[in-house]
Known about the structure:
- The protein has two domains: 2-222, HUPs (Rossmann fold, 3-Layer(aba) Sandwich); 237-274, no CATH class.
- The protein is 32% helix and 23% strand.
- It has helices spanning 37-53, 68-77, 95-109, 130-138, 191-198, 219-222, 246-265, 269-273, and strands at residues 3-7, 10-12, 33-35, 56-62, 81-85, 115-119, 142-152, 155-162, 165-172, 175-179, 203-206.
- A nine-stranded mixed β-sheet has the order 9-8-7-10-6-1-4-5-11, with helices on both faces.
- The longest helix is centred in the last third of the chain and has 20 residues, at 246-265.
- The mean pLDDT is 88.
- The site of flavin-adenine dinucleotide (FAD) has 30 residues, from helix 1, strand 4, helix 3, strand 6 and helix 4.
Amino acid sequence: MLKLVVCIKQVPQVSELPWDPETWHLQRELAEGMMNPACRFALEAALKIRDKIGARITAVTMGPPSAEEALREAVALGADKGILLTDRKMAGADTYTTSLTLSKVIQKIIPDFDLILCGASTIDSDTAQVGPQLAEELDIPGVAYVHELTIAGNKARIRRVADGFSETIEMELPGLVTINTTSEAPRYMSFRGFQQAFGESDIITHDAASLGLHQEWIGARGSATKIRNVYSPIAERGNLVLTGTNKKILDQLFTLFDDRIGGVVGKDLKTEKN
Ligand SMILES: Cc1cc2nc3c(=O)[nH]c(=O)nc-3n(C[C@H](O)[C@H](O)[C@H](O)COP(=O)(O)OP(=O)(O)OC[C@H]3O[C@@H](n4cnc5c(N)ncnc54)[C@H](O)[C@@H]3O)c2cc1C
């Protein structure tokens, strides 16, 4: 039976969330969470593979205890099992320590996985780094921005769409893919799935100790990315629309910005113009 692992991130349902002024970490506990949209598409891709050729699907998430809700949603949609990685020591993780922590639980719980499916990116920090870094950590091939995916034997046939062009790739399993939100629309939750998710559902929890992860390797402590300051940019100036003939517009540009344009082209436009 094919073993599929789907990485799911719980993201805040709101775009404006307070930052903890001490740690500059998002205060996720202050907002309702939801499953990151691209993770829904990754789960859907896994469910489609199971519909076609059979598979066992394990959903994995790293987050605060409330992230269990996203796992229950995954089980309600059809995942067979959920793994919650939660520990205060894992808080404030950058993408590298997130990938490292995910790799450790996958190596420990599902070492014989065939395919890992991630969303292409998240709607809160949107780095699109976790999938590729997880493939690197596990030393497996990875393909990002996947639009179509089929499995035959130990190979995945993939059509990816990125930067406006499409590519067809064959990847040997085990491997990792990140799924675009342009791929097939996710299915709706069934009532039976909902009952199962909030009834007897197979969700296990792991912390740093159970994974043998030292505090120095994970969370904010293990993260090379340090958030120095967070602020919402304030738009200070409005738009400036220059009108007239091309020559008139150029003249206005040179008059208004000759020092900056001069700096870019390395010329003193004042003397050039005369
Ligand atoms: C506003 C903001 C800016 C940030 N900027 C940076 C930054 O520049 N560099 C940096 O290293 N970190 C940054 N972080 C931290 C980053 O959010 C976390 O490391 C996060 O866990 C992973 O990054 P991502 O959400 O960008 O993931 P992405 O790489 O965009 O996520 C892609 C996929 O990876 C999987 N995935 C991601 N996170 C998890 C998880 N916790 N559990 C399970 N699967 C997961 C999901 O399948 C998801 O669809 C930032 C956080 C915020 C809130």
